[in-house]
Amino acid sequence: MKARIVVTPKKAVLDPQGKAVQNALEHLGYAGIQAVHVGKYLEIELNGADSETARKQIDEACRKFLSNPVIEEYHFELE
Amino acid sequence: MNFAVLQFPASNCDQDAIHALRDVLGHSARYVWHKETSLGAVDAVIVPGGFSYGDYLRCGAIARFSPVMAAVQRFAADGGLVLGICNGFQVLCEAGLLPGALIRNRSLQFRCEQVHLKTLTADSPFTSQIPPGRPLRIPIAHGEGCYFAEEETLTGLKAKNQVLWLYCNAQGEVTDQSNPNGSLWNIAGICNEGRNVAGLMPHPERGCEAILGSADGRFIFESLIHALQSGQLATAA
Fold first, then answer.
1. Strand, coil or helix: what is A61?
2. CA distance A60 to B2
3. B217, B20 Cβ separation under 8 angstroms
4. Which of B229, B227, B216, B233 is nearest to B122 (CA)?
5. How far apart are alpha carbons B237 and B226 in whole angstroms?
6. How far off is chain A from B10, nearest CA to CA, in Å?
């Protein structure tokens, strides 16, 4: 089983990386870009766990360690 | 006084802290490796600057789960004095010992320069010996020092007098220009509600001798030492 986790900065948090990428995209001539948010992607390979247990485990790890709830949001998929 | 200076893989201001405490201020200080589960007999803990665990995932995110941090949590819960400097501040925020978080500098640049700090209160073991009204000249060296917290947390910090230092100019005026990293409200350092745990992004340990550009950092350590000595006198009496 594999967990694909995406961690992004909360909307209220200043995201200078996203802003810099947005500026560069506009500089390259891409029009209509409203906002860019730069986050993280994590892939976790799991063995043994049933999907319910895995979901609980990954969710807890995201809350406790993989994201910082003060500044970040996360979501994940299991497959 | 006996200071413990934590050492994580890739701490790099641990030696500066030991030098300031031992050689400049004349106190005892020793390293405590991140795998230790006990701090031993210490009066205060310094969580030093650096790039603990390579700053992987988030600054301080991995260090905060190291065995020694459980001992620091207990020490802090018992009222022990803990000061986090730069990466140490990030570790303490990640550990939940201080509110908020430190994110990428607004400029995206790593900033390494002298800054000035305005001290907002003398009512803490970290600021009591700072001459009132005197801006402190202290160096910074960080890429992720932009202090962020939710509005509610910020209001709470202000109401409870937990903001210890703001970035200011040489005249002591708090301006946007004197903010090196985009920190909300120009916040450079804060303490917890119990006022025994504090963190700041600037490096007082690198500014304890005139030959290094400033000796103002001494006031912060002298405040800690003063608090410990007066506490001990109270206990002895």
1. helix
2. 38
3. yes
4. B227
5. 16
6. 20
Contacts of A14 in chain B (CB under 8 A): 103, 106, 146, 148, 182
pTM for the model stands at 0.94
What is the ipTM, given to two decimal places?
0.88
Q: Is the dihedral of CA B164, B167, B170, B173 positive or negative?
A: negative
- Which among B29, B94, B98 is positioned nearest to B66, based on CA atoms? B94
Counting the structural domains of chain A, the total is: 1
CB atoms inside a 10 Å sphere around CB B72: 25
The CATH number for A57's domain is 3.30.1280.10
Q: Over its length of 237 residues, how does chain B's per-residue pLDDT go in tens digits?
A: 999 999 999 999 999 999 999 999 999 999 999 999 999 999 999 999 999 999 999 999 999 999 999 999 999 999 999 999 999 999 999 999 999 999 999 999 999 999 999 999 999 999 999 999 999 999 999 999 999 999 999 999 999 999 999 999 999 999 999 999 999 999 999 999 999 999 999 999 999 999 999 999 999 999 999 999 997 544 433
List the domain range (segments joined by +) for residue A24. Answer: 2-78
Residue carrying structure tokens 């007999």: B41
The CATH homologous superfamily for domain B2-236 is Class I glutamine amidotransferase (GATase) domain (3.40.50.880)
The residues near B218 (Cβ < 8 Å, ≥ 6 apart) are: B20, B24, B25, B204, B208
Q: Do A20 and B108 touch (CB under 8 A)?
A: yes
Say yes or no for a CB contact (<8 Å) between B101 and A71.
yes
Contact A14 B101 (CB under 8 A): no
